[in-house]
Amino acid sequence: MTTPPPHARVSDTQDTLTSAVRPAPGSDHPVCVIGPLFLDVVMTGLRHAPRPGEEQWVDQCAIMAGGCANQAVALARLELPVTLRSYLGTDQAGRLVRTHLEAEDIDLGSCPEVPTQSVTVSLSFDGDRAMTTAGSDESPTLDGVQTTPSAVVADLRAVETGRAALEHWSTQAHPPVVLGDVGWDDTERWDPADLDPLDLVHVFVPNEVEAQRYTRTRSPHDAARALAERVPLAVVTCGPQGVVAVSEGQEISLPAAPVTPLDPTGAGDSFSAGLLWGLAHRLSLRGALSFASLTAACTLRAPGGSANAPRLPHVAQLARSLELPDGYDLSFLDLISS
Prior knowledge:
Elements lengths: L30 E4 L2 E8 L15 E8 H10 L4 E4 L2 E2 L2 H12 L9 E2 L3 E8 L2 E7 L16 E5 H6 L1 H7 L7 E5 L21 E2 L3 H8 L4 H9 L4 E5 L5 E5 L2 E5 L12 H14 L4 H16 L11 H10 L17
Parallel strand pairs: 1-4, 1-9, 2-7, 5-6, 9-10, 10-11, 11-12
Antiparallel strand pairs: 2-3, 7-8, 12-13, 13-14
Helix pairs in contact: 1-7, 5-6, 7-8, 8-9
């Protein structure tokens, strides 16, 4: 096991992050995750894309709660208090999801019950995945959340439907930090109006394709700069190319952690959870991105999204075991017990 060079643990003294992006989670003010909820069946190791009439055998399969549960479980395993706002099925699939989430100590008191749980089958191959889903991607609004959360993790559609609650909470003494993302646009119109809810978002974390298409730019750097004109912190994830972040004129590019990906399911959700953890623990922007990147890297190394979300010692262990590229700030290691 290698030891990171001493300079890698020094925080970035040029950090300019505003307090608006730094939540203060606690038992009375948890992180609220809102979105659609699924039972995920994830299979890895396919030799090629599925073909009609053909059966492939694989050696790894995982069954777990998916959708917004990926973010909720990732946050909970990083020891942040989490409440979930989603539809939870009363059928057998829903009972499996409930059991999984209760085992992670996630508060389900804000989850309305529905008869049938949505289910997704995810097949991973060639570093990507194909998914088939039965059910709905609908989620309830934020109006049913009784306590003002310290942070809200949501896609832009949920941000818009939760506008009334978010605007109310924004008047409180400690308004929540809103971390938003955006899904794939099946119409491929990439209508800039889809980004209108950014007026309620503090941290925006799209991937490079989403960011470039919505901003009509040709690089993740240009996309991050354009988005940073609308939110305090714009973070564009670039898969194996790493991540680009812009905030208050500060721009940071960080290479991806050098791990061999087995299954990308949930890696982006783990990244967002790690980023929120870093912001909540007052890390510099570089430090928060470093922790987030390593949290995502842990998820990449085994099949399944929420089932493979790492705990704090796992992230620390990976950080200490890798020969990391220049630019990583490992000051977060001082906050994690061995």
